[in-house]
Amino acid sequence: MSFTACVLRVMIASPSDVPDARDAVEAAINDWNNANAKNKLLMMLPWRWETSSVPVLGGHPQSLINSQGVDESDIVFAIFGSRLGSPTPDAVSGTVEEIERAVSSGKPVHLYFSTAALPNDVDTRQLDGLREFRAQISQRGLLGEFATTAQLGHEVWKAIEFDIAQLDLGVPVLLSTKRGVRFSAQPMQEREISSYDNKGKPRYSNRHWIEVTNSGDEDATDVLFEVVGEHSSMMLVNGDTPTVIHAGQTRRLNVFHHMGGGAPDVLRIRWSEHGEPKDFDFHVG
Prior knowledge:
Layout: E1 6-13, H1 19-40, E2 42-47, H2 49-52, H3 61-70, E3 75-80, H4 94-104, E4 109-114, H5 124-137, E5 144-146, H6 149-167, E6 183-196, E7 202-214, E8 220-227, E9 234-236, E10 243-245, E11 250-257, E12 266-273, E13 276-283
Parallel strand pairs: 1-2, 1-3, 3-4, 4-5
Antiparallel strand pairs: 6-7, 7-11, 8-10, 8-12, 9-11, 12-13
């Protein structure tokens, strides 16, 4: 059945080295539409230069992408892997120019940097330029990271929900049945310096945690976490004290992994909903 909805255009910006991440952002936007468009009377329309731009002469390619993509978009997602991108007449790269143009126009801009292993043929000049840009842009806001495309998709959903609340579109929401508590569990990791060798070179380790989100419309009370299975490599640092996770809230559950575990990493969440005990298992490894 047809319905009338407000449509927001979402631009996906990045250099050429992260096609899988670009696909993941578009897929997350489409998944959000499938889950929310009818109830919220709101849709997100992905815009990518390689599929959405119209070929036309009359200016530098970047200026045409700016006018067709950046200027006509409401939200911008920018993704970086190991490259900063190709320079333009007005900026160190096309993606950077798109970011700056969107920011100057007051549009929401979400930047994400990959923490995955670098490719063997990484362009060190591009990598140095990217690191310099990140250091500069980090002084102007909060940056995001992703180790996998699944994690990036989770971040896109969070950003969309944040933008909807901030934009105050005045879109009516259809009355619907209660959704109750809806948990999701997203494994996260971050590479950090753990120590230095005798030559002053840093040694790195990975810090792990799980982001537990209640995307429902009811608070979850008496929430407890536990690892399922006797041979899991995962151990919880916290989570043994009952807590409350409110509707729309995300909690960080710190974990670490030890050698020897062979079973899949499964997190069990137990909670009470209107006094009724419930539980659900999430594969997080």
